[in-house]
Specification:
This protein is of the alpha/beta class. The chain has 10 helices and 22 strands. 54% of the residues are buried.
Length: 389
């Protein structure tokens, strides 16, 4: 049996706000108690972690990750577990592997990888289900997606999607709500427990509103691959921003969205902002040429682009660096930045036991410096990265 874990003296990122000089006890993979150090007892034989001067947070949940460390999930879904083992170094304890527009067989392979589970003894970040970004997106807003793989959300699409549930390996689907048949697919997926997102779309304001009424609850990389916000024609961006039911995914790398706009969105809807990286195989690498769903992409210090025409094709941004950049761009507190990858995904996906430091939640924990540098990561109360691993 694993020893209990006690993290002592940290500032705990609780749902009600930061609590200084806190202690957290984890037992049997879950948080047993968290509160002021004077009020929390230390179990016998516990592994004690002195964390004065550090922040203890729920583990990060990344909602849009195409791959990393040289691996592309769409090209080779089997690499999900290899990437998962390296994510705790960036504070990630759970994620949605993202499969971009591709053949149905690719989606089925990826679902099979998740259903089969990790290799024995694996201690990496946990994939919570796939994020299927496409193929039901608008060719006019395809971005880096291969247009030959796009499909309309017709009756055949609905038959394929009948098998998509969180239990069967699908958590989030990005589609364009203006396409013929899209609203019926939104309603179907929402009824199956799948979260539906608007993205890669040319929808106007009315079409965006109709999609939200049908069940859309997320925005895939807000502003990117959708019409710009206008003061007379607010478009899809306006519909997503205006509706409090919608969580807003945004890539805070300073390239996909100008820092001033990130700050404006955070001021307007900070509690609904979900920071994502949209990271590709270039994550964790020192630049170079990689693959995104069979297309060549090139990563450098600033961005990842298609080799053919220079269009943006995701990022090489690490999740912890995304939080640091968001912190700098918006001037938000460390607690507010961390919430965009903990509390906000918890609420969007309806996760009962992840994303919050509360008794009964999984003991997926990260110790950060006040500047949001990762010091250590624990999964199920066991150290997987840092000096105690």
């Amino acid at each position: 049996m694993n020893r209990p874990l006690v993290i002592e003296g940290a500032t705990a990122m609780l749902p009600a706000g930061p609590l200084e000089d806190a202690s957290l006890v984890a037992r049997d993979g879950r948080i047993a108690a968290v509160g002021r150090s004077t009020d929390v007892g230390v179990p016998p034989n516990a592994q004690r972690v002195a964390a004065a001067g550090l922040l203890v947070s729920a583990g990060l949940i990344e909602l849009q990750l195409n791959g990393g460390f040289g691996h592309d999930f769409t090209a080779r879904p089997e690499t999900i577990w290899e990437v998962a083992r390296r994510l705790p170094a960036h504070g990630v304890t759970a994620f949605l592997p993202t499969i971009v527009s591709s053949m149905p067989a690719t989606r089925e392979r990826a679902r099979g990888v998740l259903v089969d589970g990790p290799p024995p003894g694996d201690r990496g970040a946990v994939p919570l289900g796939l994020h299927l970004e496409g193929p039901f997106i608008n060719p006019a807003a395809a971005g880096a997606h291969d247009r030959s793989q796009l499909r309309e959300p017709d009756a055949d699409a609905r038959r394929e999607a009948a098998a998509w549930t969180p239990e069967a390996g699908v958590r989030l689907v990005t589609l364009a709500p203006e396409l013929p048949g899209a609203l019926a697919l939104v309603e179907q997926l929402a009824g199956q427990g799948v979260r539906v997102s608007a993205g890669h779309s040319t929808a106007d304001y009315a079409a965006g509103q109709a999609g939200i009424e049908a069940g859309i609850r997320y925005a895939t990389h807000l502003f990117n691959a959708m019409p710009p916000l206008g003061h007379r024609e607010p478009g899809l961006v306006g519909a997503l921003l205006a509706d409090p039911r919608v969580t807003l995914g945004i890539i805070p790398d300073g390239v996909h969205v100008h820092p001033a706009v990130v700050e404006l969105v955070f001021e307007a809807a900070g509690g609904r902002v979900s920071a994502v990286t949209d990271a590709t195989a270039g994550l964790g690498m020192k630049g170079g040429s990689f693959v995104l769903a069979g297309q060549e992409i090139v990563a450098d210090d600033s961005a990842v682009r298609l080799a053919t025409d220079g269009r943006l094709a995701g990022s090489a941004l690490a999740p912890d660096e995304a939080l640091r950049r968001l912190h700098r761009m918006t001037g938000c507190s460390a607690a507010q930045a961390l919430a965009t990858m903990t509390v906000v995904p918890h609420g969007l996906l309806g996760l009962p036991d992840r994303g919050q430091l509360v008794a009964g939640s999984r003991a997926d924990l990260v110790l950060f410096t006040p500047d949001l540098e990762v010091v250590a990561t624990f999964i199920g109360g066991q150290p997987v990265h840092g000096p105690w691993a």
